[in-house]
Amino acid sequence: MKVLVPVKRVIDYNVKVRVKADGSGVDLANVKMSMNPFDEIAVEEAIRLKEAGKADEIVVVSIGVKQAQETLRTALAMGADRAILVVAADDVHQDIEPLAVAKILAKVVEEEQPGLVLAGKQAIDNDMNATGQMLSALLGWSQATFASKIDIEGDHALVTREVDGGLQTIKVKMPAVVTVDLRLNEPRYASLPNIMKAKKKPLDEKTAADYGVDLTPRLEVVKTDEPPARAAGIIVGSVDELVEKLKEAGAV
Amino acid sequence: MDFALTEEQEMIVATTRAFVERELYPYEAEVERTGRLDMDVIRDIQRKAMEAGLYAANMPEEVGGAGLDTLTWLLYEKGLGRANYALHWTGVARPSNILLAGTDEQKEKYLYPCIRGETWDCLAMTEPGAGSDLRGMQATAKRDGGDWVLNGTKHFISHADIAGFAIVFMATGEEDTPRGKKKLITAFFVDKGTPGFSVREGYRNVSHRGYTNSVLEFDNCRLPDSQVLGEVHKGFDVANQWLGATRLQVAATCLGRAERAFDHALAYAAERRQFGQQIGKFQGVSFKLADMAMEMKAAGLLTWEAGWKFDRGTVTEADMSMAKLKATEVLAHVADEAIQIHGGMGLMDELPLERIWRDARVERIWEGTSEIQRHIISRDLLRPLGA
Fold this sequence. Notes:
The complex is a heterodimer of chains A (about 250) and B (about 375).
Chain A: E1 2-6, E2 9-11, E3 33-35, H1 37-51, E4 57-64, H2 68-78, E5 82-87, H3 98-112, E6 116-120, H4 131-139, E7 142-153, E8 156-163, E9 166-173, E10 176-180, H5 192-198, E11 203-207, H6 239-248
Parallel strand pairs in A: 1-4, 1-6, 4-5, 5-11, 6-10, 7-10
Antiparallel strand pairs in A: 2-3, 7-8, 8-9
Helix pairs in contact in A: 2-5, 3-4
Chain B: H1 7-34, H2 39-51, H3 70-81, H4 85-91, H5 104-115, E1 123-124, E2 140-144, E3 147-158, E4 165-177, E5 180-191, E6 197-201, E7 213-223, E8 228-229, H6 235-242, H7 246-271, E9 273-274, E10 277-278, H8 283-312, H9 317-342, H10 353-363, H11 370-382
Parallel strand pairs in B: 1-4
Antiparallel strand pairs in B: 2-3, 3-7, 4-5, 5-8, 6-7, 9-10
Helix pairs in contact in B: 1-2, 1-3, 3-7, 3-8, 7-8, 7-9, 7-10, 8-9, 9-10, 9-11
């Protein structure tokens, strides 16, 4: 079985995000970028499936600016076999919306015919949590989101999902789109020998035009704000005072 | 000139950095508090370091290392250098390159077990009476029949406690030179447990807690010829040819630690408020940060350039001395200023600053004191002029 893993290049989770002066988004110029952490988990899971003999090829795909090539190399260094870069923007500030990404991915799926698409549940930049679901709709495939455990059994997959109030296990028919959550696994380090080998692995470069997908944004960003500053706290003298303050604040 | 790192170098930096933060930092507080490193901890780090291909990465590929070029190796050293020295030296060991100078039998017995993480090496040169003046060493190895008999004392021998063997440099004779008599030195492999060889606990010291030093005693310690490393009387040649860029390794690890101290100082300057504003807005603090950043960059460029030249065979002794001297002094400066920016909090062991400041002190002394480095640099300048 072939596994397709979409990976997104996002602002590194350690970077303190700054809003651009005009409020149109966050400043990404000369900022450290990395692979979306949820996508890293998806890559790791695909490698584990391959190690367990349940997958035989892992193809990673990234859609965005040319520099996303670095993200793909990291995935190859972790253990993916092959990469496809779809250049769809030339400005790092230009985000490709989930629907356009899903449409491109649907075309890639058509070409590659994977048995499973493993994606991060969302990207940590815009937190849309939409691409995987849209892709499964476009393909007419089953979907399982927020996976914290995945078992492939023949033409079905048992996926444990993290839902409000607990864990839900569902059985989905393959091929399927599965989006992964934080607790699925702990991604490995790209090991030094694999980093050296990554350069020799194939990386195909395509453009959005090759897939004939319309990238026109459907959404309009009205405003981007810094999170509000936290108000200063107060020290209370007793439990009674605490309860009183909470009542005043309408919290109890 | 191309100053950009390759994609592979970027990834190696990222892997090393992530490894150090996830696998080494969590053990730091305990090692700093107790001055000890448990074997269980070492084994845990070792296993993970091997999986990540970081263990013995300084070694060539054909013997099981990562086959990194010198510049990339130094970038990896910088990453490791952020953490407590004992943790990265034992858990992510870099066996001495001098082991590559051994015969095939010696490599089997000493090099490969080090690369496989089964044991560690240690190097013994320094004596109570011979520090910077290595040729002044008193310990001797004398011929007796077909064997060698070793006598004398070595001290400040790093991690000899966990090493399975020592590479020991001994005076084996004298030669006449235009500048008077000079001692001839030979290098030997000495196994722990060899009769007449003992290792005892060294001194407690201010820098690198958990990274021990020992005193090595040789009392009529008898060795066969097969324990000689390289050629008889050519111990310094072996060291010069094979020890390689250890000064650059010191420079790189110092750069890592300086960067860590700086990261703390920068974040604190942007957060801490006094007199109604962030302290980074006060020129007294902001100018410190500017100088720290500039000095670190200068030391980095000296180090990377020397590493780059090392592989091209064009590096000079002065190049390596400049890098070592600058990086160690910059670390001292940056560690000190990072504490100054933090005020009293900088001295508390809640933050890694007090230990970076302590650890910085040895760096200007070992692998050649700052004075020896200045001697080497000025000698390179003056000798061609006959001075």
